[in-house]
Amino acid sequence: MYYHLKKIAVGIETVDRLRIRQSMIHETYGKIIHSTRNMPKKSSELIKSGSIFWIIKRYVLVRQKITDIKQVVREDGSKGCEIELDKNLIKVIPTKMKPFQGWRYYLEDDIPQDLNVNNNEDEEFPEQIRSELIKLGLY
Question: How far apart are CA 6 and CA 84, in angstroms?
């Protein structure tokens, strides 16, 4: 069984804003790191084949491959976790998601499928409209 993470992109309104934020992180650290408080117990499985699925405005919209997970000690002495991510944001079929705190595991059977990356027309629709069209079978 493959494991993935789902995480709310706090303060992010669009996929482009997520891309810009991560670009700034990459410029600063030379890699894309997402810091979180808790270390996933299934970290070895996540590194092998997992992705983090980003929730933006209550929709899962994109995913990123997890390349490494490290436990760290922060400046204040508390434990934390750094999840290193691939640069590529892969769009997925928009999927409505209820809010939650922190991150959750996302099982392989539940994850949304990737969108066709060769189709440039999908840029015309806002993510929520595209999600509704998919639900209605019109997209």
Answer: 14
Token pair, residue 64, equals 């990123």
pTM: 0.81
Q: What is the rounded CA–CA span in Å between residue 52 and residue 1?
A: 16
Q: For the segment 69-104, what is each residue's pLDDT rounded down to a tens digit?
A: 999 999 899 999 999 999 999 999 989 998 888 889
Q: What is the DSSP string of the chain?
A: --EEEEEE-TT--SHHHHHHHHHHHHHHHSSEEEEESSPPTTHHHHHHH-EEEEEETTEEEEEEEEEEEEEEE-TTS-EEEEEEE-S--EEEEEEE----SSEEEEEGGGSPPBP-TT-GGGGGS-HHHHHHHHHHT--
Question: Rounded to whole angstroms, how far apart are CA atoms 3 and 23?
Answer: 26
pLDDT at 132: 72
